[in-house]
Each structure stands twice: as C-alpha cells, then as structure tokens.
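Lecture notes, continued. The same structure-token format from the folding unit now serves as the input rather than the output. Read the line below as a description of shape only.
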C-alpha cells in the first residue's frame, strides 16, 4: 500500500464558480474512501472521509505523517461538524458564527465516535469550515465530514497551488482538484477553546486581536498554557498542537531570515548570523552556493544585489540558468498579507531553480506578520524542532 502507484486525475475548475458536474467524480470517490486533494482559502488539503478509519490511515501513509499529529476535520457547515464534538461552548459558537466559513480551526472536546487516528488519541478534535467555493461544493457533494491535513509530504512546504500538490503526490493520490492559487497562502489559525481562555495553537490569518475582541478574553500562547498547567493554575492536560513540535515547511535549501541585523538562522550547520548581507552572500557565492532571495521590491532594490528575477509564473521546473543569485518579489513594499500568500510558493520555486540557500525577508511579528514569521522560523529550522519523522527523501521526488 505504502508505495502504491496510481494515475492522478487532475480536475480543473473555476476557483470562484466551480462546475459541480466536474467535481462529482471526486466527491463520490471521497465518500467511498479515496483521497482527494482540494483547494481551500488557506492551502490545499488532502481529504479523506473522517469517519472511515482506512481512508484516514491512508492520509498518514501517503504523507509520511507521524501518527501523533492529529488532523483537522472539515465540514461545509456547522450541522456537519456538531455531531463530532461533545458540545460547542458559547464563545466557541460565537467565533464560529462570526468567522466561519474562514481560516479558523477550533479545538473542541470530541465525540466518542471520532476515530482515534483523526485525533491522535486526544480527547479533543479540531474542526473547521473552509471559505472556498470549491472546498464547500466538494464537501456538500461528498456529504461527509472530511479530515484534511495540508496536501504536502510531511515536513515540506504546504501547497498553495495545484503543481505543489503534484510535486509531492503525483501518482500517489487518485484525484487533485485544481482551483487555482490559495487566497491566504498560510494554514488556518488553530485555537483551543476547551479551557477558560482561548489558546492560540497556531497563528494564522484570523489574528489574536480578532479572537480577543470577539471573545472579550485575553488569549494564551501554547507555551503559556503549558506553563500554567505545570504550575497547577490550569488543568493538567494543557492543550498542545502536537504538530507544532516538528520541523515544517522545509525546502531542500537552507533557509535564512533577513532582518535589520543581517542574515540569521538557527540551523547549526549553516551559520550566517550577524554578518552584513553583502559579505555573507559574497562568501556563499565564492563557495559555489546558489542563492535565492524572497523579499519585497523595495527591499530588493535597497539590497542592490546582482540577482536574476526568478519569475512568478515558474511551474517549478528546474532551469539550467547560469545565475548564482535569484530574486523573487512578493509585492512592492514589506507587507505581511502578500508575503504570506507567496511564501510557500517561493520556497518551492527557489528550490526548483536549484538554490542551495534561501534568504527570506523578516517582517514585524504581529497581526498576520506573526503567522508569517511563525512559518518562516520553522522553515529556517530552529535547532529545538524535531525532524518531521516523515519518509520524505530527495531521491523519491523529481
Ligand atoms: O488551513 C488549514 O488548517 C489546512 C487546510 C487544508 O484546512 N489544514 C492544515 O492541516 O493545516 P495540518 O494537518 O497541516 O495542520 C493541523 C494542525 C497541526 O499542527 C495539528 O497538530 C493541529 O492542527 N491539531 C489538529 N487536531 C488537533 C487537536 N485535537 N488538538 C490540538 N491540535 C490539533
Ligand atoms: Mg501541514
């Protein structure tokens, strides 16, 4: 089963007004227990019927996902998701009413019949209503709740375009629905609503400020909630997003963050900390390294480096370009919404151009910027993150 090969049928639809006739075969397959990759407003998901153990098991196999990392269950509406949870506390219901469909996932107490595989044995389940016409049509047509992680091999950058999914899963899944690029480009905000205060398990495009304003409560970070549990201020089984401890979003290249002080990364094997950028780049180039820079046009202009534009419409195919420095701009000025939309795409494009080193622009760590910086820091692999435990090897992909 593990290395099973099959043809992947790619269904092209209009992302804003999908033709249901085109979606139907994938919806039927999904309801029958097959895997279907589909676009959401955040990233592409790899879906399976959430109540079908075998289908869910296949997600873990195909992704190479560690079994202790639970899945988010998607529904077209609250009525689909409500039976999966024990109860929806009033503030959780308020968030769902105000922000769903949207890039928000709530962790709630699970109902008994939700498979342990989905929840990784936790007594909670994560639920979300995606705000994407294709995802909503597919979910309605399939008529089941759908467990769906991001549609990437474990440890790789999340997919925000159909070719990213094919790069990781061609001939490994039966269906991919291509609805164009994803609007947000980063995964949903995950909020644990089982305690007295909301706990932000993963920052996303729904910001902390929005959650605090709507609930009238302060939020806790995962680390704060864990610290409280240790000091006995909260119940012992403090929430954690098990997935957050793994290395994520990693291209083949080593990723460095460009900030006011220069280039930095915690990757022990490629120290560059503190060096002025030009000197650092010169050193890398003379060592024969190919470099990719992801930043705003304004920042690229300021840096004034002799780079070749990588081109936004790359399909991810490797080029023989002789350049040893590529640049990729996400927009005119430093700004988190546009940078977030393009980050994962940029990591894959620069990888496919053969870059050994990717330097990505750091942004202020607040609002949507904190979601962007959270992903970027993980891509840069701080030493305290475990390897993803996946079965992804370079030799297995193109
Ligand atoms: O935007 C998204 O959320 C995308 C699209 C496809 O919906 N999905 C996604 O799924 O990002 P995934 O599996 O890549 O990330 C799910 C995250 C992981 O960090 C996981 O540990 C956490 O949600 N999670 C899932 N169930 C949980 C639970 N019961 N308790 C705590 N964390 C949970
Ligand atoms: Mg993921």
């Amino acid at each position: 089963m593990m290395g099973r090969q099959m043809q992947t049928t790619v269904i092209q639809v209009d992302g804003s007004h999908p033709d249901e006739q085109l979606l139907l075969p994938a919806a039927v397959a999904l309801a029958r227990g097959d895997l279907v990759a589909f676009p959401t407003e955040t990233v592409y998901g790899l879906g399976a019927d959430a109540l079908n153990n075998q289908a869910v098991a296949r997600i873990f196999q195909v992704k190479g996902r560690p079994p202790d990392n639970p899945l988010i269950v998607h529904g077209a509406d609250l009525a689909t998701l409500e039976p999966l949870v024990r109860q929806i506390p009033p503030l959780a219901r308020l968030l769902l009413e105000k922000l769903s469909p949207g890039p928000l996932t709530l962790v709630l107490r699970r109902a008994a019949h939700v498979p342990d595989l989905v929840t990784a044995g936790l007594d909670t389940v994560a639920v979300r209503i995606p705000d994407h016409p294709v995802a909503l049509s597919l979910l309605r047509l399939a008529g089941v709740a759908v467990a769906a992680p991001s549609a990437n091999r474990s440890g790789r950058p999340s997919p925000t375009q159909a070719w990213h999914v094919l790069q990781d899963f061609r001939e490994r899944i039966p269906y991919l629905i291509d609805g164009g690029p994803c609007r947000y480009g980063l995964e949903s905000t995950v909020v644990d609503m089982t305690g007295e205060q909301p706990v932000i398990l993963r920052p996303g495009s729904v910001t902390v400020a929005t959650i605090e304003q709507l609930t009238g409560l302060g939020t806790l970070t995962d680390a704060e909630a864990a610290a409280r549990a240790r000091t006995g201020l909260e119940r012992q089984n403090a929430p954690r997003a098990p997935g957050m401890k793994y290395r994520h979003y990693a291209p083949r290249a080593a990723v460095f963050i460009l900030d006011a002080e220069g280039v930095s990364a915690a990757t022990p094997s490629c120290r560059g900390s503190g060096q002025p950028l030009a000197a650092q780049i010169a050193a890398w180039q003379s060592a024969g390294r190919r470099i990719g820079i992801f930043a705003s046009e304004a920042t690229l202009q300021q840096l004034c480096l002799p780079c070749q534009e990588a081109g936004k419409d790359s399909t991810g195919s490797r080029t023989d370009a002789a350049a040893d420095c590529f640049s990729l701009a996400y927009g005119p000025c430093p700004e988190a919404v546009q940078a977030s939309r393009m980050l994962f795409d940029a990591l894959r494009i620069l990888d496919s151009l053969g870059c050994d080193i990717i330097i990505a622009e750091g942004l202020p760590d607040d609002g949507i910027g904190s979601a962007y910086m959270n992903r970027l820091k993980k891509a840069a692999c701080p030493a305290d993150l475990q390897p993803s435990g996946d079965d992804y090897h370079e030799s297995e992909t193109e």
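Point for the exam: The chain has a mean pLDDT of 88.
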